[in-house]
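Narrative of accomplishments. A recurring question from our advisory board has been how the design workflow behaves on a single, concrete structure rather than in aggregate. To address it, we present the structure tokens for one chain from the evaluation set, followed by the sequence designed for it. No filtering or post-editing was applied between the two.
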């Protein structure tokens, strides 16, 4: 009789795994994607004057919604702090986390999450007021430094100063906005965060020209979307929704020219991407034939999203740098869609 208990439990567990809804099924039944974002960071995720969420990370949410529903606007956004973001994901409060989140070994192996790709290669830097009179991080010995807790920033900062045999005074706060405010109030000499986050913060200063970035980059910060462990189909959907945006830029397909390309291209890769061939790319993910077309049409390719949200003609004024395509001096490329 003792053997019957584990057998019964195994049958019960197997049945439960078979009937449990997948993330895709839950999202389709709900009719809207739940996406976790940073509360308010220019260029990446914030509400515009009309109250609509916009930004580089928001575009990942919109791309997944376009792939799943054929409608990039079917997203409900959940602004999350650094401390609460992973818990919201693992507890099922959101389906996707797209919130300037660094891919690290410990997060990937111990939190019950999977990274679906890297949408921005970044690194941690320092911003200081010009009035401080220094031009290198080596000049920060003994300085007070503002930073957001519960992030990789905190660890990187301590490790850098230890390696340089320097000391600093910690000014830790719970959110990036608090760090921003403390810095402007003069409660710290420097503000440290991902370089892109510093650019986003400086873009909102009344006198941004009075602050500049020190040349040292003290870490690698590969940022990307995150999903829960245990649902490979959903991981594939999020990962390939992002890859579609990169692949489209590689092929020169934009939100403006894709209909013309769909009607005239002889390139089998482009035909498959735009859903005008017999390719089964959508079927393989459990999605419609036009899933990738909808992403490009409604959200754009990677380059369009970058330039719209982060590029030289935005308040952040960021160059593509290593986030340029591999054919243009960067390290960005999509795995083959075949």
């Amino acid at each position: 009789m003792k053997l019957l208990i584990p057998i019964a439990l195994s049958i019960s567990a197997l049945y439960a795994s078979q009937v449990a809804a997948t993330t895709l099924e839950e999202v389709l039944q709900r009719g809207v994607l739940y996406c976790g974002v940073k509360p308010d960071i220019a260029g990446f995720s914030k509400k515009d004057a009309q109250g609509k969420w916009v930004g580089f990370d928001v575009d990942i949410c919109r791309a997944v919604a376009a792939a799943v529903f054929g409608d990039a606007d079917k997203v409900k956004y959940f602004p999350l702090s650094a401390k609460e973001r992973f818990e919201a994901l693992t507890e099922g409060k959101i389906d996707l986390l797209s919130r300037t989140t660094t891919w690290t070994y410990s997060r990937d192996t111990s939190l019950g999450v999977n990274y679906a790709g890297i949408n921005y290669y970044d690194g941690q830097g320092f911003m200081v007021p010009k009035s401080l009179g220094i031009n290198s991080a080596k000049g920060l010995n003994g300085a007070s430094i503002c930073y957001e807790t519960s992030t990789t920033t905190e660890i990187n900062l301590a490790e850098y100063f230890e390696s340089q045999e320097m000391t600093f005074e910690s000014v830790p706060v719970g959110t990036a906005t608090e760090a921003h405010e403390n810095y402007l109030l003069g409660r710290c000499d420097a503000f440290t965060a991902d370089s892109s986050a510093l650019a986003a913060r400086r873009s909102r200063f009344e006198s941004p020209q009075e602050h500049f970035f020190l040349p040292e980059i003290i870490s690698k910060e590969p940022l990307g979307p995150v999903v829960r462990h245990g649902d490979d189909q959903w991981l594939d959907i999020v990962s390939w929704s992002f890859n579609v945006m990169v692949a489209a830029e590689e092929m020169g397909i934009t939100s403006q020219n894709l209909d013309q390309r769909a009607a005239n291209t002889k390139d089998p890769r482009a035909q498959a991407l735009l859903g005008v061939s017999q390719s089964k790319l959508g079927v393989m993910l459990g999605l419609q034939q036009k899933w990738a077309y909808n992403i490009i049409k409604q959200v754009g390719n990677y380059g369009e999203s970058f330039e719209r949200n982060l590029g030289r003609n935005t308040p952040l004024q960021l160059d593509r740098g290593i986030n340029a395509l591999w054919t243009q001096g960067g390290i960005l490329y999509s795995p083959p869609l075949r």
